[in-house]
Specification:
295 residues, Rossmann fold, Alpha-Beta Plaits, four-stranded antiparallel β-sheet, ABC_transporter_ATP-binding, transport
Amino acid sequence: MDDLIIEDVTKKYGNFTVLNNVSLKVRKGEIMALVGPNGAGKSTLIKTSLGLLRRDSGKVLLFNKDPFYESSARERVGVIFERPSLPMSMPIEEFLSHVTKIYNKNSEIIKEAIDLVGLSNYENKPFSQLSAGQRQRAAIAHALISDPDMIIADEPTSNLDPLERNKILELFLKINKQKGLTIMISSHVLPEVLRVSTSIAIMKSGKVIKTGTPDDIIKNISIARIRCKDVRIIKENLEKNGYSLSIEGGNIYVKTENQEGISKLLNLLSDQIKNGQQIYGIELIEPVIEEILEG
C-alpha cells in the first residue's frame, strides 16, 4: 500500500520548471530519503505533496486524497521544516499543551512525545535555552502530537552539527520502528541517510533520476564527487584507506571499482561526519545517468 503517490507532476514558476514530470511512490511504513543538491526541487516536491502548492500538471494522492483540494489528507501528516518556528520564550511542555488543544488530544500524549524524542529533562525549559538539535527534537515532538500516520521532514538536519545530525536521523529510525510511521526525509548528504532509509530517490534539476533501495542506489557507481569544508583532512583520510582521488574546483573526486569499495567509502564519510567534519554534499555518479543529463 502506498501512502503517497506522485505521478507525472510538473511545477513551474513563470518560465522556470522546478519539477519536471516527477513520479514517486512512498510505501506505508517505509523511510524514504529524498536526496539531491540545493535547488534540485526537493522542497517544492514536498510542498506539492502536501497540497501547499498547486501543481501545473500531474497527480498527487496523499492517503488516496488530492491534498490540494482535500486538506483533510494533511491531518494525517506531521511536518517538520528545516528551521522550525517555535515560541522562544515558552517552555516545551507548555507549547505542546497548546498543540494538544488544537488537535483535541489528551495531555498524556505530551509526556509520550517528549520521552520519545529524548527531551524528558528539558520539558520546563524555554526554547531560547535549547540547542539547535534540541529545538529540532521539540519540532519532531510537535509533529507527533497529532498522532500522525506519516512524517515528512524537509532538510531536518541541515542546520545541525555533525553529531546532532546523526542523532536526529537515528531518532527518525526509532520513531519508524516503535510507532510504524511512514517517514519521508529530504537531505543533500547521501551517506548520512543510507543507514536509516529503506528507499531513496535521487533528484537533480527538478527530476527524479533514480530510485531504489540504498544498495540499488550505490551499485555500479564509479565516481563520487565530494564537497566538504576541509578538503585536506578528507583527502588524507581517503588516501590512507587506499582510494584513488583527484581535486578539481575544491571538490574531491574519488574513483571506486566495485560495490564493496563504494560501501566502504560511504561508511568512511559517515564516520567523518560523526567525528565533526563538515561534508556539504556527495554525488554518486553513474556515467549513464550523467550522459543523459548532459545530453
